[in-house]
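**Fold in tokens:**
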Amino acid sequence: MHRAIRLPLPCLIAALAGCAAGLPNTTLPKTDAMTESAAFTETRFTTPARYADEVTAAGAPVTATAAPDVDGVRIGTFAGYPAVLVETADARAAIALHGGHLLSYVPTGGEDLLWLSPRLADAPAAIRGGVPVVWPFFGRQGQSNDVPSHGFVRTVRWQLVEATRDAEGSVSLTLAPPHYADLGLDLRMHLRIGKTLEQTLETTNTGDAPVAFTQALHSYFHVSDVANVRVEGLDGLRFRDKNDGYAAHAQTGDWVLDDARDPGRSDYIYADAGGRYLLDDPGLDRRIELETSGSRSLVVWNPGETAAVRSSDMNDGSWRGFLCLEAANAGPDIVRLAPGQTHVLTQRVRVLPRD
């Protein structure tokens, strides 16, 4: 188990204003991984040498992929993408090989918890909807404009590393993007499909220097109408509003889209969040419970009508059908890893009945 270390650093992160460069000379025991809520400056990443070739390859037809010899797991297509298809007694799911992208999670007898744009672009473009994997930086936080937004793994082809089925019938998968030796980090994603969806990003520092990074599981949750839902578990938290120059504000009550301060849109990073949130949706008569670990931030995002009309994959009004609740290390919540250390970010999702 990793022990969290907190340093009394006084200032808010300058990275939100686009600052960059190195790491403080803090020596850590090799067994400790650290997530800081203050001014560690992120590593400024350069694009891996093989990245452009991997993106090009992701746009080519997929060669035949052998299906694992696991009951309820097969290789097929979903929404036009080659995907790992999972079916258990409790749920079914689809994970695209493009981007390691969770496209669908449907509890038995229920509706999909995830939203996909009806206007998906062809690979190697990033997929709009589902759960994009944002890594090793959120947006371009702390980075130059020379790197792709949201990192190096959304637009490349992943591999299915392992698939197993446990005695209870749940299926566990491990997937991985291409390994970039010059990045100094290695990523594995673990999924467990059953009554609860569990998704984990496991990041290991494979280099010889400390690395500070940000990340997110950018979940697009399917809702009846984003204007009619609310998110519990945020009351009293401080958040930074991207649409307000990352100015700090305090949340009062539950999150709703038509907040009096800035109605009709949301691009908030909540700091020091508690790790349990409820998305209450009267229109679908359900509550989605999101529990997170390995982070102290939550991003709540919906572009609203004005921004959505500028996007070719949301300009048909479909933006009303989702709300992004993102288990993240972003904003002031930066992960710092010494060589050999591993950090684990996990989200657990399940449906609860409405009271």
